[in-house]
Amino acid sequence: MVSIHSRGAVPMRFYPWYPAGMAGKKNIRGKVLRAIRRMKHRYDVRRTLGMSVSLGILFLVPISGLARVDLWRGDHALLFRSVPFKHGLAGVIVGIALMYVATFLVNLIGGRLFCGWGCPVGQVSRFGEDVDTPGLRPRQRHLAAIRGALFSGALVLSLLAWWVDLRVLVLGSPPALAIAWGVLLASVALTYAHGRWWRWRFCMGYCPIGLYYSFVSPSKRFGVHFRNQEASCIECDACDNVCPVELAPRELMASSGERPGISIDDAPGRNHCLECGDCVRACEWMIERRGDGPVPLLLGFFSGPQRLDELPAPTETEARLEVDGAAVEVVEPS
Ligand code: SF4
Ligand code: SF4
Questions:
Q1: Is residue 26 within 8 Å of 2, Cβ to Cβ?
Q2: Is 277 touching ligand 1 by the criterion CB < 6 Å?
Q3: Residues 221, 302: contact at Cβ < 8 Å?
Q4: pTM confidence score
Q5: Could you tell me the distance, in angstroms and rounded to a whole number, from the CA of residue 126 to the centre of ligand 1?
Q6: How many C-beta neighbours within 10 Å does residue 240 have?
Q7: Mutation test of ligand 1: which of 239, 243, 307 has the most ligand atoms closer than 8 Å to its C-beta?
Q8: Burial (CB count within 10 angstroms: exposed 0-12, middle 13-18, buried 19+), residue 6
Q9: pLDDT, tens digit, 9 for 90 and up, residues 181-212
Q10: Rounded (5°) CA angle 261-226-235
Q11: Residues 6+ positions from 181 with CB-CB distance below 8 Å
Q12: Do 2 and 15 form a contact (C-beta atoms < 8 A)?
C-alpha cells in the first residue's frame, strides 16, 4: 500500500486489489478482518438482521402473490390475485420502484446505511473475501466458499421468483427444467464470481444505486464520525487499511479525490462511505488492545467537530476557486 498525505492529514490511498491466492502476503484488510472477527460483535447480529430483511422481502413479495410474473405457467399475480401478464408486470415494476424509494428514504436519514447493512450484493462481496482471509486452513476456506455459494444461490432464487414460479425447478417439463436450471446455475456462478473477483470495485465505481447515493448529499449527522477531542486516536491506521472502498474514515468530510468507474470524483468521502462499520469495529479493537479513552470512530448520529474542522484555515492560494473558467479569490470575512 502507498499512502500519500496531502493537505494536513488527509490521506489519498492507493492499493491494488488482491486476486484470490495472493491474499496471504498482502491483504491487509483481510488480516485486520480476521483479527476482529475472532471476537463476537454487535455488528454481526445487525448485519445478519439487515440481510435477512432484504432477502425476506425479495422472496416474500413474489411467493406470496403480492406481485409476480410467471413465465412458466402464466400464473401472474398482483395483490394476491391471479391477473393477466401486463398487470403482473406492472406490479413487479411498481414493487421494484417502491423498494428503491424505501432505500432512498433511508438515505435521507441515514446516508448509505442500506449499502453496508441491507444490500445483498455487498454481502456477496463480504462472503467472497472471506475465502481469501489470510491464514485459513483449507477446510475453513472451503466452508467459506460454500457459504458464499449458498448466499449467492439464495439471492439468485429470490430474484428469479419475481419472474417464474420456482416450482418449475422441480415440476417443469424437460425443456422448462433445462432452461430454469441453466439460468439459475449460470446466475449463481456469475454472482459468486462477482463476490470473489470484482467485489468492492463494483460498489466503488459501478453500482447505479451507489452512484445515486454519492450524488445526492447524504445525511451528515448520521454516519462514521471521527471524535478526536480527547485525542484518543493512536494513529494506528487500522481504520484506513480495513475500509473496503479505499476511504480515509478519519477524514470523511474531505474530498475523496479521483474515484474509479462512474463514481463522482472529489465528492466528500462521506458520500462514498458504505457505512459498513468495518473501520469502527477495527478502531474499537485497536483501542481495546492498545489505546485509552473513548473509541474515536463512531457510526451513528453526531454533531461535534470532525478532524477537518480542526485543520488550519486554507491559505490564500489554496482558497482560489474556478468559476466558469475564471479564477476567483475567496475572501474570508474578518
Ligand atoms: S469509511 Fe468505514 S464505514 Fe465507510 S466504507 Fe470505509 S470502512 Fe465502511
Ligand atoms: S483505527 Fe481508531 S485509533 Fe486507529 S487510526 Fe483509526 S481512528 Fe485512530
A1: no
A2: yes
A3: yes
A4: 0.81
A5: 13
A6: 20
A7: 243
A8: exposed
A9: 999 999 999 999 999 999 999 999 899 888 88
A10: 90
A11: 169
A12: yes
